[in-house]
Amino acid sequence: MESALAWIGQIADWVGQFIPRRVVLDTTEGAVHTINGKDPIYCEPGKAHWWWPWNSNFAKFPVVRQTVSIETQTLESLDGKSFIASGTLTYSVTNLLTLLTTVHDADTAVMEIASTTLGDVLPSLTWADLYDQQRRGTLKTKIKNGAQNELTEYGVKIIRFKLNSLVRCRVLKISQSTASEER
Predict the structure, then answer these.
(1) Is the pLDDT of residue 180 over 80?
(2) What's the pTM?
(3) Which of 27, 36, 122, 149 shows the smallest number of beta carbons within 10 Å?
């Protein structure tokens, strides 16, 4: 019986696409509204916005302070010492229209760029320089500035880039052969 009347729900959904929708954004999120997949429009936080579901998309995204964890990476310093590093990135979005129209997944893009910056800056120093700059507090500034240079073009402002770990390590590779490889 349920499937026999499902067509009524489909008709109601179809008719509902021609009724404009009102969305009220809170002060922590902005949105980008596109009509027919083009002409993106920025929708400001804390205001009401109207859109038509039949020819529009409406994408919300937080624009206030956000924090992402940067995964642990095994790196090698300029003088050949292996170490691991991880961090925490705190950022806010200054230009949501640019961010959402230039990347597919904004959170992942920010994490990837920050992780790449960590992997670019740290191996360019010797272990002694890394230790010394971390102790003096200049290393986090160098990493923050590197990430900010990359993320500015996407409309992202770095508030803080903190190193959670920067420690020496030993990297071991365990290799296991199978009987077919030994013949």
Answers:
(1) no
(2) 0.80
(3) 36
